[in-house]
């Protein structure tokens, strides 16, 4: 495991602190960056998110999808939790906390935007960070590729409709054009670029070319992640320092959602008698979020300084330490899963 993955929470924590400090020391610089946008899409954030997502998309082997029949239970678990449970529990928790429990502490407009940000997080299943969580839990890398591949295929067609439905239920008017363009920009385009790049590298006849290419891109992906975190927290620096209680209010339902979804997936994995190397990444994928996409769409729909953008940024703050705690939990309870028998062997 590389230095970045080993101390991921440290680097993200330092990026958060740096972003808040710089955002308060140089607000004009961040305002200038925020103004660089086209069609409600901040171009700087878009480039950084592409830098993060593209190396991951190159690693996706869609040819492996056809082999999922060899071990379908883990994939079914991930898909059910990601698309039939998680988005709706997130919307319910957002409504419960910001329309009922916290109604006296947050004004109605801001509360509505917080709910929107939470919904965007809930409808975006994890993609980029899945491979880190899978590696940390000793999951089967090929099966993780299958799970990510299928989730990405579903996300292309399901993300926008589910978002629109849940945002509509929450009385948030969202222009379909902006939502669909965000999916195209942050999912479809990098996905196509990754597939074409992979095909080109595999056609060269050098079996190591793909690994070398991904290895060369990896530092840029790290730079993209940390730079995005610095910018996002820099944009929200004034709010974070002036209204720290709002960060806590957003974090509470996000924490409940994350741990709650994990234990739903964990319990189901044990009932399905999955092997550890299939169950562990299945639980991690079902629990974590594609926060890069959620952040980008929140900014596109509601603006850089909106409550929705802040909620997705808090999602970044919450996710890394929480996911690391869940990685430790899964590894400590490895013996509770079935052995890696032939029936549950991951896709090879």
TrEMBL record:
The subcellular localization recorded is: Cell membrane
Q: Which Gene3D superfamilies match?
A: 1.20.1530.20
A GO MF term: antimonite transmembrane transporter activity
Q: Which InterPro entries match?
A: Arsenical-R_Acr3 (IPR004706), BilAc:Na_symport/Acr3 (IPR002657), Na+/solute_symporter_sf (IPR038770)
Query: Transmembrane ranges?
Result: 7-26, 32-54, 75-102, 114-133, 145-167, 179-196, 217-235, 247-269, 281-302, 308-330
Q: Which Pfam families match?
A: SBF
Q: How does it sit in the membrane?
A: Multi-pass membrane protein
Supply one GO CC term from the record. plasma membrane
Q: Which UniProt keywords apply?
A: Cell membrane, Membrane, Transmembrane, Transmembrane helix, Transport
Q: Keyword Cell membrane: yes or no?
A: yes
- Its primary localisation, in coarse terms, equals membrane
Name the domain of life.
Bacteria
Among its keywords, does the record have Cell membrane?
yes
According to its UniProt record, which protein family does this protein belong to? Belongs to the arsenical resistance-3 (ACR3) (TC 2.A.59) family.
- Give the NCBIfam families listed for this entry: acr3 (TIGR00832)
Protein name (Swiss-Prot/TrEMBL): ACR3 family arsenite efflux transporter
Q: What's the source species for this entry?
A: Shewanella atlantica
């Amino acid at each position: 495991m590389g230095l970045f993955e080993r101390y991921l929470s440290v680097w993200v924590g330092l990026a958060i602190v740096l972003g808040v400090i710089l955002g308060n020391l140089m607000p004009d610089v961040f305002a200038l960056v925020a103004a660089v946008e086209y069609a409600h899409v901040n171009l700087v954030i878009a480039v950084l998110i592409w830098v993060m997502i593209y190396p991951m998309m190159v690693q996706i082997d869609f040819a492996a999808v056809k082999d999922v029949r060899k071990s379908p239970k883990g994939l079914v678990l991930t898909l059910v939790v990601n698309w039939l449970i998680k988005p709706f529990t997130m919307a319910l928790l957002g409504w419960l906390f910001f329309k009922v429990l916290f109604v006296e502490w947050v004004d109605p407009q801001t509360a509505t935007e917080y709910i929107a940000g939470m919904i965007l997080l809930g409808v975006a299943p994890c993609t980029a960070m899945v491979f880190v969580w899978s590696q940390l839990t000793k999951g089967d890398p090929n099966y993780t590729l299958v799970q990510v591949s299928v989730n990405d295929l579903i996300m292309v067609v399901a993300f926008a409709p589910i978002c629109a439905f849940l945002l509509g239920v929450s009385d948030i008017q969202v222009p379909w054009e902006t939502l669909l363009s965000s999916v195209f920009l942050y999912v479809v385009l990098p996905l196509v670029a990754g597939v074409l790049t992979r095909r080109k590298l595999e056609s060269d006849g050098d079996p190591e070319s793909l690994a070398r290419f991904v290895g060369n891109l990896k530092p840029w992906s790290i730079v993209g992640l940390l730079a995005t975190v610095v910018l996002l927290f820099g944009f929200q620096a004034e709010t974070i320092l002036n209204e720290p209680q709002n960060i806590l209010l957003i974090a509470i339902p996000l924490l409940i959602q994350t741990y709650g979804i994990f234990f739903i997936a964990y319990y189901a994995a044990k009932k399905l008698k999955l092997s550890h190397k299939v169950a562990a990444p299945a639980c991690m994928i079902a629990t974590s979020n594609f926060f890069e996409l959620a952040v980008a769409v929140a900014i596109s729909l509601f603006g850089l300084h909106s409550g929705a953008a802040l909620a997705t940024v808090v999602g970044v703050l919450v996710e890394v330490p929480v996911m690391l705690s869940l990685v430790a939990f899964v590894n400590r309870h490895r013996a509770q899963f079935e052995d890696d028998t032939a029936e549950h062997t991951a896709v090879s």
